[in-house]
Request: fold
Amino acid sequence: MTFSAELERRFAKLLDSYPSGRQRSAVVPMLLYAQDEIGCVTQELVEEVARRCGVTPLQVDEVIGYYSMLHRKPLGKYHVQICTNIACQAVGGEQLYEHASRTLKLGNKEVTSDGLISLEEVECMGACAWAPAIQVNYDFHHFVTPERFDNLMQALRDGTYQRKAS
Amino acid sequence: MRYNEPSPLETRIVSQRFDLPNPTSIDTYLANDGYVAVKKAFEMTPEQIIEELKTSALRGRGGAGFPAGMKWSFVPRNTGKASYIICNSDESEPATCKDRLLMENDPHQLFEGMLIAGWTIRANKGYIFVRGEYRYLIEILERAIAEAYDRGYLGKNILGSGWDFDLYTHTGAGAYECGEETALLESLEGKRGVPRLKPPFPAVAGAFQAPTILNNCETFSAVPWILRNGGQAFADLGTPKNGGTRLVCISGHVNRPGVYEMKMGYNILALINDVAGGMRNGKKLKAVIPGGSSSPVLRADECDIPYDFDSLAKAKSMAGSGGLVVLDEDTDMVAVALRTIKFYAHESCGWCIPCREGTTWLKKILTRFHEGGGRPEDIDLIAELADNMLGRTFCALGDAAAMPTTGFITKFRNEFEEYLKKSHVARVPQLALV
Reply:
């Protein structure tokens, strides 16, 4: 498989970061970084990662089900993750998820038919003091009300959504 | 960036540079005591560094509260073999959001803490294990690491010491269990994050089966200040055996939720009323989950205590990871208990049967109970089930699920009993069998 030059650089750096003979360590990061580029973990990717890390495809395969961020099916272009854990629950996280599910007409881990938006109810993402919190792909949004949520979804559809700078 | 206004009541040690312009830049760090501590460490023996840490009474900020100096002292030195420094930035205990700020606002402080640990055991490699959701932090950390290499604070022959240290980031991919130190090490090795049987502890056989110092991000971040100002100065900020400050994450029904750096031992009610602006909408306090979702809940009348590891242990709870969820009088405690156990059932790695089955059954029973299908015997059944999980698993996840469940049942049994009054099952008369 071929990846973008940037991802290839990252892979080279990754394989170099672990002690010699320990390149299996790169399996999980490689899967996640590659998934971000190609959309999901395909069988082809499993075999590619296995080859690059010097492990069997089975050793790659077995981690996929374990890590909740690795997906075998493509997510939407924008993956909307809503936390409903206790800190978010206390200030309306569950209602926000229900609102999202109703307005987007999506169940948990479902994707809109145009492939633009997917929805997931997630566990604590580390934004508890600024709850309710959601993530759009890797961008955090804090203190999200249903109104703010609707505006955000509109921006995704309009193409006016801008990735947050880090 | 900070997401809440700071409080004037804070004591800024690890967060001292948070509000500076360009906080992630090495120039900002160098202009504000940056990399002074590591130079000092180069003049010290490993024993002196460890002694300073022991004096500081710095305890693990990830949740367990284990004395850091003691942990470092367990690592065999001069074995001639490779050893490693691992930073646990997997921050996933529900209600905790502080390591994020440390990496976002002062990455070099973390690097310096890891460098000092590395020098102490003469390790040559370090990894920062960052939870997968914090991708933007990996970008920040990698830019900062590159800067540190450019200026000679990482890489070969650091500051002419003759010692080399390389630092890398490693992303997780979504698993609470990987915050447990041995599961983290399995994950770092490219496997499913299931815990290892201890002993051997990571100090002796950690990353790649080699001696390892593994600490939480906040723990490492406190080390440079301790070496600059002395262990005693750090210890003096807190309470006996609970040195320094801690980043306290206050969430829930308060007016000013946020992350605040407070002296260890700050009163919990004062945290709520003075630091976090009091209860929202003038409601009354009902309960506090004091140290992440695995800590047993405290009733309002139990909250007039200092916030440190030992005081919380005395109150039969935990200061844990520093995340307080403040709950008001309108909170449905059965719903909170259910949401808590749903999390642990989702995150149980399945390795140990009491945890895998226990969390699943607790979730089933609590779901049924919450939906109005509770039976009178369920309350004791939940308590008994939780009790049987305690201490019967490789890692603490089983306990982390059982302890808060027991807490909700014992402290708020009346609310569970209220649910029974609405239960359609409880009203079915018991018929005699002949």
User: Anything to note?
Assistant: Chain A touches chain B through 46 residues (CB under 8 Å). Strands of chain A lie at 78-83, 117-122, 134-136, 139-141.
